[in-house]
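Lab notebook, page 48
Experiment: co-folding of the full assembly
Goal: obtain a model of how the components sit together before planning crosslinking
Operator: M.T.
Materials (sequences as entered):
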Amino acid sequence: MERAIKEEKRVFMTGNEVVAWGALAAEADIMYGYPITPQNEVMHYWTRLAPKHGRKFLQTEDELSAGFTTIGGVLAGRRAFTATAGPGNILLQEPVSMAEMMRLPMVMAIMQRGGPSTATVIYSQQEVNLTTSGGNGEALRIVYSTATHQELYDYTIKAFNAAWKYRFPTFILGDGYQAKMREPLVMYNPQDKGVEMAASEPFVGKEGKFGEGREPAHLRNAFSMEEELYEVVMEHIQDYNKITPQIVEYVSLGCEEADLVIVAHGIVSRAAVAAQEKLRREGYRVGFFRPITLRPFPVRALRKVCKSTSKFLVVESAFGQLARLVKEALFGLEAEMDEIFMPGLGITSEKIIGHVKKKSELKV
Amino acid sequence: MSASETTMPKSWRLETKPHKFCPGCGHGLVLKVLGQVVDELDIQERAVFGCDIGCSLLAWDFFNIDSVQTHHGRTTPVITGIVRANPSLIGIAYMGDGGGYAIGSQHLVNAANRNDKIFVLLVNNTNYGMTGGQMAPTTLPGQITETTPYGRDVDETGSPTLGPEMVAAISSETAYVARGTVSNMSKLKKFIKRAMENVVAGRGFSFVEVLATCPTNWRTNARDTWKFLDEDMKKYFKVGEFKTLPTEREE
Amino acid sequence: MKRLAKVVIAGEGGQGVQSIADILAEAGNEEGLEALYIPNFGIEQRGGVSVAFVQIADNLIGSPKFEKGDVVVALSDRAVNRVKCHVGANTIFVYDNSLIEIAELPEKTDDYIEEEGECRPVEKEDQPVSLPDKIGKVIAVPATDIAKKELHPRVFNVIILGAVVEAARIVGEDSIKIAIENNLGKKFDKNPELRELNFRALQKGIDIVKEALVRS
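Observation: model returned without errors.
Model output:
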């Protein structure tokens, strides 16, 4: 495939544009999509770029169709993706559950908007529950929560490679702020950086004749017996657990000597890092922990943090969706959990600093 | 009777025969014709067969053709996605009346309207068979089902969906649309072959609805089954071609 | 010393608020700095006040929105009320006094008060136009009048851009001119006089703020 990015370059653009370029650099062949704010410009940029690079696009009738046509693209052996948000993410969960059962490497970019229902088209972190565990199964998917445009680019590329390498549906979880804001990043050709591009291959319509090295594919997601299903699901779970250490990513700053660890993900983690730095400068012993993969969650790393600090402040633009994952990870350990929950609202570093300072026991 | 009508189609998967459909079910007849057409057009290795959930699911290992189970109502977008990504493949979406006209109707309407180069083959047996015989969009007025135990009341639940008529109205000039019946196999084969040829030629969307029997849920004996298919169903569902190339059109 | 400038610009739809913010952020990027621009968007945008947030800094920027701005700009009565919660004791507040009348401008205060109040704007039509008690500096820029009388009504927002550039003092004139070229270059190519007009408007805004800051 012709390289979409000839040379490394610094650019200044919106997050939706970054996702389109990232998909192009990741050698995505086809996007299927349905309009919903705030992800629309992913399609807008893709439809402008795609024909120049021999890639394709289909606008579908809804997000069910966007998800199932994406599955079709994957079955045909193409690196296929879609992008959506909010109510569209709800519809997308149905095809994602099929992808989990059949180990289909579909890739999705989610730009979280306010919820529940139509709510706002602006911003939230309220699609964590849905994106990490929205199906009628065991949530065997990979979810990368990005914080910067550089990460949006890096993890869009990574999402395609992880999906095709491990054969689990993979999400890039952004939000409306990331979608619409502009900031600089460096675009590059992943091969030039030594990124291993996982090969894609068809599940149906392979080359060759039946009986001559090719057998007809019979792909299933329905089973008549409990035992059959159990075996298949357990095999997937074992695979998922086996690759978890290779997939899990997180950031941990100053947690070893801290009286309090601020936990945040995605764009809120930027406010949390800024708050942690400022509080440290003022003498507060504060650490910072950020899961990059929300699924699989960096359980071991967080439990290790808990051994030196048992006080956590979970900060999120949702009402406890990240906190639920944190609590689950820390189950059985002694931990105190404080919170800043602001569903559908941006969180500033000032807010976090003010909150921490109010806790008198954390004096310098 | 020619040899092709007495022997199994080459594209059938022998290990899975006899098949799993109920005795007297129309699905086996439809799939027999489909297999013959695949053989005659020599597309066994280029075809991709998608099965909806419902009785049509039982066809998932019926052929030696690349086959994929999908979700209820979602076979049309899966097959659309495959063919959009790789147009050299021949996509066949196989479904029932519930999958095509109820839960997946938006996909049928939009694939037809976009003129996607796929073949949608829909079996109409006037009920949801797999789930135990509930009312379908195609259930006849007055027909008794599990969810219309006193007979379908059209004031309450509407009239039977006329699928090919609808698809013909919204599809492009290059589409092929027909309704066949398992009571006339030679005509059904002609329709399915034309539909498939239209897709193989990359001309346009192809849609065939087939009137089929379901004695299990109709609770009919052989004679009443045939009567229901050939008399009652035909009162509402006109058999014939609704859209075809002008050169092929016949009265 | 690490540099960081936080700017909020607000006005009515059609005043070019988002273009000013976009060009300012792009100039930051041209300087090789971190720059982050985020519009407020959504249903609120239609008929509501248009607000843009820009941050330019040496290091990676924190949250895209913030509480107190270093420079806060309002270009309509409603906009003043919409953004006044972003005005703090160190804020330079810029407004177009040919459009807005603010009854009693408060005295400049030197004592800095740490504020942790959250900015929760409420848009009400009948609110009187007012400002908080503690403001770093208030600068009136009669951009609309100047544009009409001396330049062209269309470059009203470029005068404001000049004022912001001078008030924020984080991007140089060269970078801002490159960013203007990036955005309007095609129009300039068709009509080279426009370039001259825009750059004069930019200079006008810079000069007004420079003078106001010297006087204080």
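Interpretation: Chain B has one domain: 24-245.
Next step: discuss with group before ordering constructs.
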